[in-house]
Amino acid sequence: MQRLAMDLRVLSRELSLYLEHQVQVGFFGSGVGLSLILGFSVAYACYYLSSIAKKPQLVTGGESFSRFLQDHCPVVTETYYPTVWCWESRGQTLLRPFITSKPPVQYRNELIKTADGGQILLDWFDNDNSKSYMDASTRPTILLLPGLTGTSKESYILHMIHLSEELGYRCVVFNNRGMAGENLLTPRTYCCANTEDLETVIHHVHSLYPSAPFLAAGVSMGGMLLLNYLGKIGPKTPLKAAATFSVGWNIFACSESLEKPLNWLLFNYYLTTCLQSSVNKHRHMFVKLIDMDHVMKLFQ
User: Fold this and answer.
1) Which of 130, 123, 128 is nearest to 108 (CA)?
2) Do 83 and 62 share a structural domain?
3) DSSP letters of 29-90?
4) What is the pLDDT of residues 177-215, one digit of tens each?
5) Rounded to an integer, what distance in angstroms lies between the CA atom of residue 187 and that of residue 209?
6) Do 38 and 149 fall into the same domain?
């Protein structure tokens, strides 16, 4: 509040000085026109500082964990200042694909088999040039889980790998069945309520590097899948830490929100189109079991 008060005082003083020394010229270039512009800017700044820029709400299961986060991850206590010209969350989501860069990442691909005869594609970034952890057997490994229709090529995944590379970590991206170009071998895709594939992947990765610290991070549906896994496995998991981002707190409320006209137009239509494309790509695996024409009508 002290910082906000100071910012408001500075803005008010600058506005007063300007109005005292304004130069009277033609209409929009006149002092009155410029005053309106400056006044609007000050009002917007006041609104931004008082209503938009806020500290995150930190919710933990215990005081000790809260202190741990504040000591080792101080960003959770800092005020978050969204992009001034695009602070609304939906606007940021829509603009992200167009304005964010895609850091180059060279993957090593690995196909692993599942108990039901399917296959899962893992994309590895081994980070063999790590100066912090030169021993590959003990190099920390981060398992990354993309969103609903995402893969290892998503910009947010590439940026997470780029940051992990700077820390010296190794990364592996879990691509859901049939999403990253590999063939679907069984008539089964994926669901955030079913953790069998994730359990297979975690067991496989941990068996390769049993001495390395093992972490995981999931985005959107990937985060939901990760949370469901942790809730199911509990302390038996080999994961030392996990983090989720942009995960719905109440999935039923989220689904209802996505069906609202504006959100359907901005998000749900795109997600539905991507799912439709994925199902069509593997249509031959399902035609003998279900009415695919009926399924595709549900997407419309």
Assistant:
1) 123
2) yes
3) TSHHHHHHHHHHHHHHHHHIIIIISBPPP---SSHHHHHHHHHH-GGGGSPB---TT--SHH
4) 999 989 999 999 899 899 999 999 999 999 999 999 999
5) 31
6) no
Distance CA 46, CA 40 (A): 10
Specify whether 287 is located in the same domain as 224: no
Is residue 245 within 8 Å of residue 217, measured between CB atoms? Answer: yes
Q: Which of 103, 101, 84, 95 is nearest to 41 (CA)?
A: 84
Tell me how far apart the alpha carbons of residues 170 and 138 are, in angstroms, rounded to a whole number: 10
For 164, the domain range is 100-247
Entry pTM? 0.83
Q: Which neighbouring-strand residues pair with 119?
A: 113
Reported for 81-88, long-range contacts at CB under 8 A and 24+ positions apart, including other chains, are 81/53, 82/52, 82/53, 84/48, 87/48, 87/52
Helix (H) or strand (E) holding 119: strand 119-125
109 φ, ψ (degrees, to nearest 5): -90, 145
Whether residue 109 is found in the same domain as residue 238: yes
CB within 8 A of 288, min separation 6: which ones? Answer: none
Structural domain count, the chain: 4
Q: Is 111 inside a domain boundary?
A: yes
- How many angstroms separate the CA atoms of 119 and 131, rounded? 34
Q: What are phi and psi of 54, to 5 degrees?
A: -140, 160
Residue 255 lies in a domain: yes
Could you read off the pLDDT of 45-79 as tens digits, one per residue? 899 999 999 999 999 888 999 999 999 999 999 99
Average pLDDT over residues 219-234: 96
Write out the two tokens for 46: 């006041």
Q: Residue 123 falls within a domain, yes or no?
A: yes
